[in-house]
Amino acid sequence: MKHHILAIGISKHQNAAANLSYAAKDASEFFELFNLNIGDIGYKKLLIDSEATLGQIRAALGLELQQAIARGDAFFFFYSGHGVIANDLHDEASGSHYLVPFDGTFDYVNTCIPVSYLKESFNKLKSGANLVFIDSCFSGAASKNSKGYPGPRKKEFKGLKTISNTLSGVGNLTITASKDDEEAIEDSEFKNGLFTYYLLKELDRDKGTQNFPVLDIFTPICEQVIKRAKEKYNHTQTPTLNGQLEGTITLPTFRKPVRISPQIIQVSHSPELLEAAFPSIILEIDDKTQEKLLNDLIDLVARGRDQQTTSAALISFERICYKSLKALRTDWERIFVENGDDISKIPGSAAKLEGTASQLLMIGAVVSVFGSETQMKIYSEAVVDIWQFTQGRSGLVALITVPEIILAEIVYVIGIISMARENLRPWQILLQTPIYNLHGRDTPPDTYSTVPGHLLL
Amino acid sequence: MVETPPPIPIVQYRDIYYCDALGGNSPKVNDHLRQFLSSVSWLPALAPKLEGQVIDFQLQTNLLLVLLTIHNGESLWSDFARFYAQRVLPLVNKIKYKPEFRKQVANLFNIKENQIGPLFKGYLAQVAERGLGNYFWDSISPDDFLTGEDKKTLK
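YS: structure for the whole thing
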């Protein structure tokens, strides 16, 4: 009987906001444990981070694997990374578990690996046993240290194809890190997924026999994960075991334990993917162009926020703000020259300016939600410059002062977002940003105090 | 030589509240803002609570701006008072009963949390006294800002 192994671990995603800490390390250690200890592995493949794209994972489960495995062989499949629930491909009312590859987006159905695909792939194998280890979770919740991914919960579907109930036929043994509605967590002290840590520990433990039944590793893993999750993190995580094997499958003997430093995991393949700009969070809104712009900005801001210790990231962000401001200024000056003396064109001109200002507004809105305080300060200082458009101008007051409306819109956009998200800090930073008031309108005309809507002093 | 006046915080830059492009008329600026904010389709994507409630949050923002400007020795047209109280009461209740939010508001005004009730009551009374009484008949009253604790203290 030969052993075959496919290990997948994804710590770094195209969507940087989804990054995990130790998933790639989990897979690397699982893979190396087999690679170092078993002399004659048939099919062996390790896919980590940018290698683990949708296409690469599908290819790894494809023809080459099918051809390598002979009747009666054992196939070990290991996955550490995000899991999510989404509509089933073939039945919209039902849900399905999906594994989230490196290039997975919030269009889960079309960019992630459904459990039914795993099942079909495993069914094509002649192996006597498929041993599946999933260090992921499908709770639909995403929180710190968790492998959950934001998405629908299982109760939102009338039926659900889960890892456990779909991959549990005869010949498949599936061990998952947590129950369907629980979150699987990463352990910063162990520097592994909590489940993977105890799995590796149990695999390379000296069992005193060369014929250790694979099923027997489950109970100690389960007990230790539950205990550690509860005691250390006050968290509930219960590994599950499903499936049925014909006969007793024994584990290979692992004499050389493997521990890999997360720092040494590097993927040099497909560097172009790492350089590409991808959204951190994909928001679905009506207008496709706006949606793309918004998602690109979220990615830019989130990446800048994460790297803000480097001045280069801040300079890059500042440049984006001023580029947007420059576009607004150029448009305003063109409109001012073209329509500066024609009051009838003002409504159209104002609308054009608002269109140009929309990107600047979006930057502010995104920073107020996803950005850092430093980014908010940089943005606010850039925004104050809008006011300078009006300096030294003469002509129709209504046109000269259009940039002030844009400033008011920014104050209110960030105001309502801060209010709705109950985080007033971004708005506070904006409101406290100094601005020179050179218009000389500090004291309003007397008539103002008697007309509703004018300044009341 | 005319000396350049020192910069002021943007919150005190009143030209944005009474923008001359809209006739120097604050209700028009606020009407424009309501129309504009309702047209920004992507806002609820960033703050889901805004879905269907943009006007309420615009008026709540206006209420806090009104209080802030008075706090800074200025005045601002209280546009929120043109609408029924329930539009802004969620903000008032959050300020009164949500400790984390109350802390943030105190920070925004650079005051202590126990000053919020009496100060805001006074500010709102000032706005009403300055000629906006007619616009307040169905909006919040100055006492709405007081918690039970504030009322006991004031007694």
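YS: worth flagging: Chain B has one domain: 10-154.
IM: good catch. Also Chain B has a mean pLDDT of 86.
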